[in-house]
Amino acid sequence: MITTVTLNVAVDKAYVIGEFKKGEVMRVQKCTNTAGGKGLNVAKIAKLCGEEVLATGFVGGHAGAYVEQMLDEQQVKNEFIHTAGETRSCINILAQDGSSTEFLEPGAPVTKENIEEFLKKFESMIDRSEVITISGSVPAGVDVDMYARMIKKIKDRHKKVILDTSGALLEAGIKAAPTMIKPNADEISALLGVPVVSRTELIESGKKLQARGIEYVVISLGGDGALVIDGKHVYHGKPPKIDVVNTVGCGDSMVGAFAAGMARGWDAEETLKFAVSVSAANALTMATGNFEEKDRKKIYEQTKVEIVE
Ligand SMILES: Nc1ncnc2c1ncn2[C@@H]1O[C@H](COP(=O)(O)OP(=O)(O)OP(=O)(O)O)[C@@H](O)[C@H]1O
Ligand SMILES: [Mg+2]
Question: Could you give all domains of the chain from N- to C-terminal order, each with its CATH number?
């Protein structure tokens, strides 16, 4: 089983409007609600890959119950800790000129008791899982070392853990040496405090992180695919050129596919090729955390893995 952790769950609302006019009343033409937070995209993708998945984290209030209901409808098994505050909404305004404007609520605070209840339940979830993914931001009330604490628990039980977050949470989480991280170039640059741009620079930075005990450093490169640095080799998985519809959630799709490959015991090269095809196929659908198997298969056949070193 794959357990996906989303501490900062959201109801993602996509508003389709005509022209975006600051300071004016705008009518929404179409509103779509989805269960959001990066870890829930990971859960949906791992499920579509055919894995048994358990989604966990914090939810609260009516919005939290709505998220649980949406996951139930998609047959994504879930066990959340219920908090007093209402689950947040994140709004993405899609205007006719193609622009996308996002409003991300911070998330209602969680209490110390909520955190302790979560950490206790989490232990039994680790025991039931082969792979655990930890994604995204945390709500107020959660310390910056929370992910490091969780990673330690997972590693003490000899299970695999993928960490996909940014900023201070990534910096603190890395200290506990997760099995895999999946930064993009911006996240690597922020982590190292210098701009990391070229493939050579990215590989060098990835190697430094790998040497700190992270088995697989996966660096995603958008349309250029992704690098895997595993201490022995450096692989570059490259998707074919595709007509992109929506790239939101591509990183999460990559994490979901890597979790599936890890759970199946695939090697790095095979998992990379699979994950590149899944994440590129996600870019061909409007929905986040979704792909069509026929798209994935076609992309997979055209995805090349170069052994760089
Ligand atoms: N334009 C694209 N064409 C083909 N594949 C893509 C494209 N954009 C993303 N992908 C696939 O998705 C993977 C992850 O994308 P990206 O590097 O943008 O992740 P990210 O920056 O973490 O995204 P997110 O916003 O989801 O966190 C890439 O490695 C690639 O396989
Ligand atoms: Mg990302």
Answer: 2-8+36-82+109-307 (3.40.1190.20)
